[in-house]
Amino acid sequence: MRKTLVAVAVALPLLAACTQNADTAPSGGSGDAADPRALTVDSSADACTLSATEAPAGTLTFDVTNSGDQVTEFYLLGEDGLRIVAEVENIGPSISRALTVNAPAGTYVTACKPGMTGEGIRGDFTVTESDEGGDVSADEQELVDQAEANYAAYVEDQSAQLLEKTRDFVERYKAGEDDAARALYPVARTHWERIETVAESFGDLDPMMDAREADLEPGQEWTGWHRIEKDLWPQRAQDYTPLGDDERATYADDLLANTEELDSRVQDLTYTVDAIANGSRGLLEEVATGKVTGEEEYWSRTDLWDFQANVDGAKVAWEGVQPIVEEKDADLADQLTSRFEELQDLLDAQREGDGFVTYDQLTPAQVKELSNAVNALSEPLSRLTAAVLS
Amino acid sequence: MAGAFAVGRGTAHAGPDGAATAGDVRQAAYAFRGAHQAGIVTPAQDRLHFAAFDVLTDDREELVSLLQRWTLASEQMTAGEPAGDGAVGGDVRLPPDDTGEALDLPASGLTVTFGFGPSLFRDADGRDRFAIADRQPEALRDLPHFPGDVLDPARSGGDLCVQACADDPQVAVHAIRNLARIGFGTVAVRWSQLGFGRTSTTSTSQSTPRNLFGFKDGTANVKAEESAALDEHVWVGSGDDPRADWLAGGSYLVARRINMTIEVWDRQPLGDQEMFVGRTKGAGAPLSGGEEHTAPDFDMPGSNDQPVIPVDAHVRVVHPGQHGGVRMLRRGYNFVDGSDALGGLDAGLFFIAYVRDPATHFVPVQLAMSKSDALVEYLKFTGSALFAVPPGVGPGEHVGQALFT
């Protein structure tokens, strides 16, 4: 999950884009004679040798072997030699990587980039007309742009709401209005959990804001949401000494300052479609490892609020890329839609007032049912990124 | 340690032909007595039964008597013989000494390795039950809390431990079952763990196995053939700890039950899995290239101005080069204890490492891992224990004799 997030400034390959970087057995110098769409590439220190420089339109596989002694990259570029159609990075010496790309007929440029510098060793590549696929909708770039813009707006909106509600929360907490603070706690955290994979990508802020007691390193001070959570719900703690007013103010101000910092950093982020798809998967993993097991909100037992918020965030990310996936893999799109619904039905059954029942009110059978639904959704979700980029 | 082999290693783990070796392997037998205890540098067998015991008695003589009886039974069982007076042929009015399920089975490379926990020297109330507190090794202290630890006390700690390894699971279980039976009244099992599919290689003649993440593990392990490295990193030297000279020639055993969140891991794209580990999944080569045993090049630049082996890759974070060159002899096993309440596999790695000093050879590595290893996202540490493993047992001695004389 740590890796699945983010937020890069550079647009990734899109359009007819890639990608499936699979580890494959080292291959010889020649492509599969039976399949003109299976090609090999030998990237050495001073040459970029393809088994063929022409292939019929459809799903092409380039099996790239690095025979040099520096890390290499392989690119399929558009006719202009600038637009990246597909790429595979980080191929270490004597390692092979496969690049799969759905390429329509046209003229392309291939490039190996040993040492990852310069414009690489280039060659011309032609994809000929064929009956098999390779079509790219002209609207796809539009869909991609739309998805990226919408998701950035969503994150900014959630971050703004998080900041506003956190401000309210810490004021109540500092003022000793514990009931009001307890009521606001899961509401404010909902906005954190909806964008948790983005928030977690800031490796310095996350431990200060969202660490659980067991996550601490020796000597690390416990701060953030869960420190305050324990102070508001000390029932499960043994020999707990409540925080004094000064300590409350320290932790509260610290949380607010970090939330402000988070909000300011979020403004600069942009998201690629694959990062959005990965974020959707990552949020469901957060559910599977922390929320469905009741470990996230140990003191307050408000895990189902977080659960719902993770699902909300995953669903928004999914719906952002849904139009792209509907064109590329309609079955996957249908499956994801119905599994999101099934999971939501189970969550809706646990609603109480404006929120949810506490985790300790769930029966083991209900927890199991929720867990099964999370697994059922997570499996197709793990194929989402590849589908978006295919 | 060469003398510990009753049957040559060549027959114990021969060539790559699995079918042919399976038969040979079970004929292997390792001598119980020697300069070091067997079961450390012995080529890692395929099966494990590990048990931790609480000592019930406060009587030193009773404890020593148990160690004598355990020594004799272990010597018999590692030779492929039943414990005590055997399983059959005795007085029909008495339950047999040996429980019998290993009858007709060969020694199967069984080794039985004993260790002493911190609580043997001082119990939870600080009591010195056996007049050995002044000989407690400085490094034999409860391990600190590491981030990510969610330890179950019922799977952690212990006054004594017994590691039984064999190439037949029934033989390993038989050993623990019979030792536990001999100990009833003096000791009680605190926890035990079954393991399968060794996850480490302790001899250059063995191929590197895979853990349940599907990756080759322990490529950089200290091997039996590296005698200088063993002296430097595994065996406690005489003079290492003036209070505990009885431990010279022994080692420290770190045991960690590491649950893997298997279902979540299985949904990670292959490229991500390889970046978390820092090796290719197929060949096990470092991402900086070459073959499995090629040294990783942590400085090799990769795409996007990041090193080709990511900064949080497991292979980088735990590499000896990051920790002043300290190495461990790892001897862990995969485990699957059925499924948890949510239907997920209760599975992972039962990590065992032998080190000369846990304070220098384990704690810093575990801390670095907890702090910055990408793999930790998919791990939960559910059990933990540390034991001092006394040196080998000489002729006529019982295990740990030097501590009690």
- CATH class annotation of the largest domain in chain A: Mainly Alpha
Distance between the termini of chain A: 22 Å
Report the principal-axis shape of chain B.
globular
Biggest chain-to-chain interface with counts: A-B, 45 and 45 residues
Structural domain tally of chain A: 2
Characterization of this structure:
The complex is a heterodimer of chains A (390) and B (405). In chain A, a hairpin with a 2-residue loop joins strand 11 and strand 12. Chain A is elongated, with a radius of gyration of 25 Å. Chain A folds into two domains: 22-128, Immunoglobulin-like (Sandwich); 140-389, A middle domain of Talin 1, CATH 1.20.1420. Chain A has eleven helices and twelve strands. Chain A has helices spanning 140-174, 178-194, 196-200, 205-210, 225-232, 245-266, 273-291, 303-328, 330-348, 364-381, 384-389, and strands at residues 22-23, 38-43, 48-50, 54-56, 58-66, 72-77, 84-91, 96-103, 106-112, 121-128, 351-352, 355-356. In chain A, the strands form three sheets. In chain A, strands 1-8-5-2-3 form a five-stranded mixed sheet, with no helix packed on it. Chain A has a five-stranded mixed sheet with strand order 4-10-9-6-7, with no helix packed on it. Chain A has a two-stranded antiparallel sheet with strand order 11-12. With 390 residues, chain A is of the alpha+beta class. Chain B is α+β, with helices and mostly antiparallel strands and 405 residues long. Chain B has one domain. Helix content of chain B is 21%, strand content 19%. Chain B has eleven helices and nine strands. In chain B, strands 1, 2, 3, 4, 5, 6, 7, 8 and 9 form a nine-stranded antiparallel sheet that branches. In chain B, a hairpin with a 5-residue loop joins strand 7 (333-339) and strand 8. In chain B, helix 3 runs antiparallel to helix 5 (169-183). The longest helix of chain B is centred in the first third of the chain and has 19 residues, at 60-78. Chain B is globular. Chain B starts with 8 loop residues before the first helix and ends in a 16-residue tail after the last strand. Chain A binds chain B through residues 1-4, 21-25, 66, 69-71, 73, 89-90, 92-95, 116, 214-218, 220, 281, 285, 288-289, 292-293, 364, 367-368, 371-372, 375, 378-379, 381-382, 385-386, and chain B through 144-150, 261, 263-264, 267-272, 274-276, 280-282, 285-291, 300-304, 308, 312, 341-344, 367, 370-371, 374, 377. Chain B: One of its GO terms (cellular component) is cytosol. Chain B: Involved in the recovery of exogenous heme iron. Extracts iron from heme while preserving the protoporphyrin ring intact. Chain B: It is found in: Cell envelope. Chain B: This is Deferrochelatase. Chain B: GO terms for molecular function: heme binding; metal ion binding; peroxidase activity. Chain A: This is Iron uptake system component EfeO.
